[in-house]
Amino acid sequence: MGYSPPNAVLTWMFLLLLLETWAGRSRAQESKVLGGQQCEAHSQPWQTALFQGEQLLCGGVLVDASWVLTAAHCKKPKYTVRLGDHSLQNKEESEQEIPVAQSIPHPCYNSSNDNNHNHDLMLLRLRGQASLGSKVKPINLADHCPQVDQKCTISGWGTVVSPQENFPDTLNCAEVKIFPQKKCEDAYPGKVTDGMVCAGESNGADSCQGDSGGPLVCGGVLQGITSWGSDPCGRPERPGVYINICRYLDWIKKTMGRSSRS
């Protein structure tokens, strides 16, 4: 007959197992968007990642089976869009990688001026259509501008510390609020236009390097694209700055070949 450990030993073994599980979960949640935490897997099915080979360049947002919105400053001669991802290192069943057929920055964006963030918006036409489902799904564009103090979600694989850099493996999310435009302009004198919107939180929740091109989602619709902010990131008085989608609806719809809704 085999030896059966006494009940006390079994209890200790069970407690140690629980402790290890808890510790592993805690470690997994240490990596986060500044002031945020690991997203629930596939809770942001519109989130995409732009890759040049194996290098993560920027985030992006699926707005149609064939189209992704991102920041114009993310433009490269050749790259791919990854969809349906949560962990960048682990290959997932929902993961799709599609080459970019055409990059279309906003016609007023000036790529030669590094300090000019005006019209920092770009549409990417994918070479093939994304296979849509619960883990890969376009998001609707906002049909009105965001409200002050409205709660929104930002997400990305960008660095979770600043000014040093530490890029997480899994998608991270943070909750932020829309700032009054005057407060946004005061934080960055002479740099903020009507085509931009600021969002942040008193705990320093913020997007950072690597999050560019990712979504600002408010009330389930896309209100902004991550563009720029303070350096280092996460300063409560200097919020993240996003391209204000409501100001670009006509250009987006016209470029995608859609007629504007009444």
TrEMBL record:
Q: Name the keywords, alphabetized.
A: Disulfide bond, Hydrolase, Protease, Serine protease, Signal
Cross-referenced PROSITE patterns: TRYPSIN_DOM (PS50240), TRYPSIN_HIS (PS00134), TRYPSIN_SER (PS00135)
Name all Peptidase S1 domain ranges. 33-257
Domain of life of the source: Eukaryota
* Pfam families referenced in this protein's UniProt entry, alphabetically: Trypsin
Q: Which residues form the signal peptide?
A: 1-28
Name residues in a coiled coil: none
Q: Which PANTHER family match?
A: KALLIKREIN-8 (PTHR24271:SF62), KALLIKREIN-RELATED (PTHR24271)
Give the protein's recorded name. Kallikrein-8
Q: Which organism is it from?
A: Galeopterus variegatus
